[in-house]
Write a structure and sequence with these properties.
Elements lengths: L5 H10 L3 E5 L18 H4 L4 H5 L1 H6 L2 H14 L6 H11 L3 E6 L5 H5 L4 E3 L2 E8 L5 E2 L4 H9 L16 E5 L9 H10 L2 E5 L19 E4 L12 E4 L3 H12 L2
Parallel strand pairs: 1-2, 1-7, 2-3, 7-8, 8-9
Antiparallel strand pairs: 4-5, 4-6
Helix pairs in contact: 1-10, 5-8
Length: 253
């Protein structure tokens, strides 16, 4: 394994012309958003049963389980602000250094930080589709979902404003294909620097993306990562915001 000091990471960033970031839950836990698979994650604690909440056939049969989760999730993240690392990536995009972000997260924090080119592999709550008439709603936010659930039945289930059919956020459930994986592969294949931030890379197909490039790859994550050592791969087991605060200081010099 090749550790990477912040000053060396900053030099890679300064020299990059087509950097891409792949982000996972670890970039958002510092903002107060619970992860799913970590030591205290929602799946591990079994606070929510992932098969009842996120399996597409179960959603069609009994959407109240998903919406009970959504009620808690939307309330928890409604007032959450992006982390330093979210904002750093947005600044790099604005400076022309970052081509885009590929994220496994559904929390919308990259967009809130100012990132424009964000590929959400697992979708998000920013849009929703009626399961009956296929009407699609756009530019949604957490207050919208909270209001919609408050005006629905108990347990809360949100219905289409056009036909009263079941409304599903455009989140990728178990049993559905991820969004834009071909585009994500192309982004990684074309990059000259890949940042893997806050992901243990144990969920396919996102875990396959680092294999699409031989460019320098910087992996910053607390804990183990399911990616073998290789030339040009640098592993950093540190807090993301602490590490990129130091990286940013060197990038600005």
């Amino acid at each position: 394994m090749h550790p990477l000091e912040p000053v060396a990471c900053a030099e890679l960033i300064r020299n990059s012309k087509s950097m891409v970031a792949l982000t996972g839950a670890g970039i958002s836990t510092a903002a107060g958003i619970p992860d799913f698979r970590g030591p205290k994650g929602l799946y591990v604690t079994r606070r929510y049963d992932p098969e009842l909440v996120f399996e597409i056939d179960n959603f069609q049969r009994a959407p109240q389980y998903f919406y009970e989760f959504t009620s808690d999730f939307a309330t928890a993240v409604r007032d959450v602000a992006p982390t330093f690392t979210h904002r750093f990536l947005a600044q790099q995009e604005q400076a022309g250094q970052l081509e885009g972000v590929i994220t496994q997260n559904i929390d919308i924090l990259h967009q809130m930080a100012g990132s424009r080119n964000v590929l959400e592999l697992h979708g998000s709550y920013r849009s929703a589709t009626c399961q009956s008439c296929r009407t699609r709603l756009h530019e949604l936010d957490y207050p919208w979902w909270i209001d919609a659930m408050a005006g629905s039945s108990h347990p809360p289930v949100v219905h289409c404003p056009s036909c009263d059919g079941l409304l599903k956020p455009d989140i990728v459930f178990f049993g559905e294909a991820v969004n834009g994986f071909g585009r994500a592969e192309a982004m990684v294949a074309a990059c000259d620097l890949l940042l893997v931030l806050g992901s243990s890379l144990n969920v396919t197909p996102a875990s396959l993306l680092p294999y699409s490039t031989s460019a320098p790859t910087v992996i910053v994550n607390r804990g183990s990562v399911m990616l073998p050592p290789a030339p040009n791969r640098y592993f950093v087991d540190e807090d993301l915001d602490d590490y990129f605060t130091k990286v940013a200081d060197h990038v600005r010099r």
